[in-house]
């Protein structure tokens, strides 16, 4: 019976690594410190494995074959895949048995995720892990949600997937301690006319709802207003899944700032599991 | 404005997506494209106006084709269109003050 040691949510953007100098040094330091603090908190829980909820940005998947959900069942994952990303190449260890357990249990629970035995993790998974300074040898199980190409799974379905994951992790005997990191969001536009116009009002309302513990209200707000906060904000599906896995645990934001020159509302927080 | 131009991608968008995807996921493609854009683009069964849009780095028209924004973004960085040029091209399409009212 595995215990969930922590559930974290954090934005990701390749701009942090590619164009760090587009924002003032003091702001950059503040943001990087917030990621490092999350990493320290994460490591204090002494997890054996990390389940990373993220999204593929059309690297592993293309429109010829695009899964709504995909569970990684590989022995290892190379990263990053983007030839243009300013990041050191690295290989993450996978946990094939754990991935396979989640996959099979998901099918029994009438979710129908795809699976992959060979994926390359992109900046969505890599950036927050890199900035948080997490143990580079910790095995990961990626769970990817399509947030990048309509049509996409609903916010509620993503929440329900998270609820399933929380229960399935608790039922797993192969490891003792599991942490969850949900990456992506909050408000941002990628390659649209609004790019750089962060909708801070959306982000504040969204974070406030998460902190209030109103699960249905949060799902409804995400569903009804995500279109005001940019195509990148569709990635809050991972936050929905984290909320599902948290199963009512209190949410607390540890950092938020609308960073226009990084095009992103940068939010970091955790569920007090 | 909405987050997406197309709730389901059109064939035109798909064709554009395919070029940008291939270009940045195959080791020798970017070099081949840079060496001879016309020859590279001729490998794809693209409408002529879409091929021209790619060749001219016309970010605004690429966006309007319905191309996936992540592929467009990766392409802009990958072929080194200056960040401020691609931003300005996209921003030139913003025609409404109530941009975040959907």
TrEMBL record, chain A:
The keyword Repressor belongs to this UniProt entry's keyword annotation: no
Entry-linked Pfam families: LigB (PF02900)
Keywords, alphabetical: Dioxygenase, Oxidoreductase
UniProt key word Oxidoreductase: yes
Domain Extradiol ring-cleavage dioxygenase class III enzyme subunit B residue range list: 7-258
Family annotation (InterPro entries): Xdiol_dOase_suB (IPR004183)
Any GO molecular function: ferrous iron binding
Designated name of the protein: Protocatechuate 4,5-dioxygenase, beta chain
Species this chain originates from: Devosia enhydra
From TrEMBL, chain B:
Record's keyword terms, sorted: Dioxygenase, Oxidoreductase
Top-rank taxon, per record: Bacteria
Gene3D superfamilies recorded: Dioxygenase LigAB, LigA subunit (1.10.700.10)
Keyword Oxidoreductase applies: yes
Signal peptide bounds: none
Coiled coil region boundaries: none
Gene Ontology MF annotations: dioxygenase activity
Location of the Extradiol ring-cleavage dioxygenase LigAB LigA subunit domain: 16-73
Family matches, as InterPro entries: LigA_sf (IPR036622), Xdiol_dOase_LigA (IPR011986)
Protein name: Protocatechuate 4,5-dioxygenase, alpha chain
